[in-house]
C-alpha cells in the first residue's frame, strides 16, 4: 500500500504517542454526559461537562488554542489553555501531545467547564483531554480563501457514495437527509400501528420470485441443493398472512431486482407493503392521502414540498385519472380494447421501441411511461389498469377488461402501487398461466406460477386491499433529492479502480505512451532509453496489466495504449 506524505507523518505521530505511553485506541468506556446540542440548548455557565467528537479545526496561538469539536449532534467550540491543562512544570501534554501529535480528524474526549467568550460563543474550557482514536487519513475538508470563496469541497458524487463515512463527517446536510429518512419511516409505523396493523417479516430468499414482474437475482442453497431467488416483492407472503387470519399486516422490505441502474433505480431498494382485509382500492386511496399528509408534516412541518423546480402539495384530495383516459389525453390514441397487433403498431407510431415478447400489458405500460407519466407532477392516482397489466389484481366491478388498481404518480414518477387484491383462486391460476405464456415468448420479467400461494387462496382469502410504497423515492421527494443514491447510505457502485502499481521503468514507458497513444515498438524502446533487461520486463508488465497492447500492422510492430 502506497501512503501519501501526510499519511506517513500521521503514522509517525501514532508511534510517538505510544512512546509517550498514550494508547491512541483505548478500550475503556468514555463517560460522556453531554453533547454539543444539549450544551447549547441547556447552557449553564460554569457547568462541568464531558464530551467527545472529532477535532475539526483549531487555531493555535502560543500557549492557548481555540478548536472545534464535532459530535453526532453538531459542533461546539473548545478552548485549550496550557496552564489549565498542565498545572505543574511539565508542559508536555500541551506543547508536544496536543500541539504536535494531534491532527484534524482525531476523535478525542474533553472534560471541561462551560464559559462564554467575549464575542458570545458558548465554549468548553478544557481541563483534561483524551485521545480516543487517532485518524491516519486526513479529512477532505473544504477551505475558504481571503475573499470567502470555498474550494476543495468533498462533492464528487462517486467519491461521496463510495466513502459515505467521510461524506457524513464533512457534509452535515447529508446526515440531515438520513435523519429525515428515519422520521419518514417512523411516521409510517405510527400511522399503521395506531390502526392496529402488525409489522411482520417475510423471507428474503424465496423459491419463487413472486409478487411483481421483474428480473430476479438467482443464488443457490448448498445444504438444500436448490436454487433460490432474492425477493423482488413480499406481496405473496403477506397475503398468506391475511389468509391465516391477520386483518392488517405491513413490512418494510429490502427487495432486489437485477435490472438497470439510474437516478431513480438501485438494484437493492426498500418498499413498504401493507395488506388490509375487508378493504378495496378506493379505501386505500383515501388512506394513502391521509398517510402522505402525515409524512409531509412529520418530516417537513408542511404539506407543501419543494422538489426541484416544482412545489408539490400533499394535502388531500388527489386527482384520480383512469390510465386509458390518460393515454387518450396525452397521445390522442384510444387504446381501450385495442388488439395486440394494432397496439404494437400504435406504440411504434408513438416512437416507442417494441418487440415480439411484449404483450398488451407491457405495451400499454410502455406507452403510459414514455408519453404520459411526466405530466403528473402533483400527486395523482392513475387507476383502472387493463387486466393484462395486473395479474394479481381483482377484476373491475364495472368492466371485466380492467382491474381495480392504482399507481400513485408524483413528480412524474411512480411512488406507490395498489390493488383490490385478487382472491379468486381459479381466476388467479388463469392469470399466472397467462404470465407463463409471456415467459415462453421470451419475457424474462413475467411472473412464475406459485403453486403454494394458489393453495393458500383455495383455503379462502377475505376481500383485501394492498399497497406498496417505494420508500427510497418517497425520501427523495421529502428531502428534495433528484438521485436515489443521495438517500441510500451505501448505494451499489461499480468496483473501485485500483491505483496503478508501476515500476520506475514501467512508468517511463507508460508516460511516453500516454502522450503518443500509439507508436512503433522500436521507436518507443528508443525513447524509453532502458537497458534490454529493464525494457523486456517493463513492456511485459504494462501489457500484462492491460494498459497497452502490441500488434502488427504492415509487418511493423506497434504499441497502443488502452482505455
From TrEMBL:
Enzyme kind, highest EC tier: ligase
Catalytic activity: tRNA(Lys) + L-lysine + ATP = L-lysyl-tRNA(Lys) + AMP + diphosphate
EC number: 6.1.1.6
Top-rank taxon, per record: Bacteria
Cell compartments where the protein resides: Cytoplasm
One of the record's GO molecular function terms: ATP binding
InterPro entries listed in its UniProt record: Aa-tRNA-synt_II (IPR004364), aa-tRNA-synth_II (IPR006195), aa-tRNA-synth_II/BPL/LPL (IPR045864), Lys-tRNA-ligase_II (IPR002313), Lys-tRNA-ligase_II_N (IPR044136), Lys-tRNA-synth_II_C (IPR018149), NA-bd_OB-fold (IPR012340), NA-bd_OB_tRNA (IPR004365)
Residues the record lists as binding Mg(2+) 2: 414
Cofactor note text: Binds 3 Mg(2+) ions per subunit.
Gene Ontology cellular component annotations, sorted alphabetically: cytosol
Keywords for this protein: Aminoacyl-tRNA synthetase, ATP-binding, Cytoplasm, Ligase, Magnesium, Metal-binding, Nucleotide-binding, Protein biosynthesis
Domain (Aminoacyl-transfer RNA synthetases class-II family profile): residue spans on this chain: 181-495
Cofactor(s), names only, from the UniProt record: Mg(2+)
Residues that coordinate or bind Mg(2+) 1: 407, 414
Quaternary structure (record): Homodimer.
PANTHER family with a match to the protein in the record: LYSINE--TRNA LIGASE, CHLOROPLASTIC_MITOCHONDRIAL, LYSYL-TRNA SYNTHETASE
Protein name in UniProt: Lysine--tRNA ligase
Lineage per the UniProt record: Bacteria, Pseudomonadati, Bacteroidota, Flavobacteriia, Flavobacteriales
Encoding gene, per UniProt annotation: lysS
Amino acid at each position: 500500500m502506497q501512503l501519501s506524505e501526510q499519511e506517513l507523518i500521521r503514522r509517525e505521530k501514532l508511534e510517538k504517542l505510544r512512546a509517550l505511553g498514550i494508547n491512541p485506541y483505548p478500550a475503556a468506556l468514555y463517560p460522556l454526559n453531554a453533547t454539543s446540542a444539549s450544551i447549547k440548548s441547556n447552557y449553564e455557565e460554569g457547568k462541568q461537562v464531558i464530551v467527545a467528537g472529532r477535532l475539526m479545526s483549531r487555531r493555535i496561538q502560543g500557549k492557548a488554542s481555540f478548536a472545534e469539536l464535532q459530535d453526532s449532534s453538531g459542533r461546539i467550540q473548545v478552548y485549550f489553555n496550557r496552564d489549565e491543562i498542565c498545572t505543574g512544570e511539565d508542559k508536555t501534554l500541551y506543547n508536544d501531545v496536543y500541539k504536535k501529535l494531534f491532527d484534524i480528524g482525531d476523535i478525542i474526549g474533553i472534560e471541561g467547564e462551560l464559559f462564554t467568550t467575549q464575542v458570545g460563543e458558548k465554549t468548553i474550557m478544557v481541563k483534561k483531554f483524551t485521545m480516543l482514536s487517532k485518524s491516519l487519513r486526513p479529512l477532505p475538508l473544504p477551505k475558504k480563501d481571503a475573499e470567502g470563496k470555498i474550494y476543495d469541497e468533498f462533492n464528487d458524487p462517486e467519491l461521496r457514495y463510495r466513502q459515505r463515512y467521510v461524506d457524513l463527517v464533512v457534509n452535515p446536510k447529508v446526515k440531515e437527509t438520513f435523519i429525515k429518512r428515519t422520521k419518514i419511516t417512523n411516521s409510517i409505523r405510527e400511522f399503521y400501528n395506531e390502526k392496529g396493523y402488525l409489522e411482520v417479516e417475510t423471507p428474503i430468499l424465496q423459491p419463487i420470485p413472486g409478487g411483481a414482474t421483474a428480473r430476479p437475482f438467482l443464488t443457490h442453497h448448498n445444504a438444500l441443493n436448490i436454487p433460490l431467488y432474492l425477493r423482488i416483492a413480499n406481496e405473496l407472503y403477506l397475503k398468506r398472512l391475511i389468509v391465516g387470519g391477520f386483518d392488517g399486516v405491513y413490512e418494510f422490505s429490502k427487495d432486489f431486482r437485477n435490472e438497470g441502474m439510474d437516478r431513480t433505480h438501485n438494484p437493492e431498494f426498500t418498499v413498504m407493503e401493507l395488506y388490509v382485509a375487508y378493504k378495496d382500492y378506493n379505501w386505500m386511496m383515501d388512506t394513502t392521502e391521509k398517510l402522505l399528509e402525515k409524512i409531509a408534516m412529520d418530516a417537513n412541518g408542511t404539506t407543501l414540498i419543494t422538489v426541484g423546480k416544482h412545489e408539490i402539495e400533499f394535502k388531500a384530495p388527489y386527482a384520480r385519472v383512469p390510465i386509458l383516459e390518460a393515454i387518450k389525453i396525452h397521445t390522442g390514441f384510444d387504446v381501450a380494447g385495442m388488439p395486440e397487433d394494432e397496439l404494437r403498431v400504435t406504440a411504434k407510431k408513438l416512437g416507442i421501441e417494441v418487440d415480439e415478447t411484449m404483450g398488451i400489458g407491457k405495451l400499454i405500460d410502455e406507452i403510459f411511461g414514455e408519453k404520459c407519466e411526466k405530466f403528473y407532477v402533483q400527486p395523482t392516482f392513475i387507476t383502472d389498469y387493463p387486466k393484462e397489466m395486473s395479474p394479481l389484481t381483482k377484476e373491475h366491478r364495472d368492466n371485466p377488461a380492467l382491474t381495480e388498481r392504482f399507481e400513485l404518480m408524483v413528480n412524474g414518477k411512480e411512488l406507490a402501487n395498489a390493488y383490490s387484491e385478487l382472491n379468486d383462486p381459479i381466476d388467479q391460476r388463469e392469470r399466472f398461466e397467462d404470465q407463463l405464456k409471456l415467459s415462453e415468448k421470451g419475457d424474462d420479467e413475467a411472473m412464475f406460477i406459485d403453486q403454494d400461494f394458489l393453495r393458500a387462496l383455495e383455503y379462502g382469502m377475505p376481500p383485501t386491499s394492498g399497497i406498496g410504497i417505494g420508500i427510497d423515492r418517497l425520501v427523495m421527494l421529502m428531502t428534495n433529492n433528484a438521485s436515489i443514491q443521495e438517500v441510500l447510505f451505501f448505494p451499489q457502485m461499480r468496483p473501485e479502480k485500483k491505483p496503478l502499481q508501476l515500476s520506475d521503468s514501467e512508468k517511463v514507458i507508460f508516460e511516453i505512451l500516454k502522450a503518443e497513444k500509439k507508436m512503433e515498438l522500436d521507436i518507443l524502446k528508443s525513447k524509453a532509453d532502458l537497458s534490454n533487461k529493464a525494457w523486456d520486463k517493463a513492456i511485459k508488465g504494462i501489457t500484462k496489466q492491460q494498459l497497452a497492447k502490441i500488434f502488427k500492422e504492415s509487418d511493423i510492430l506497434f504499441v497502443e495504449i488502452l482505455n
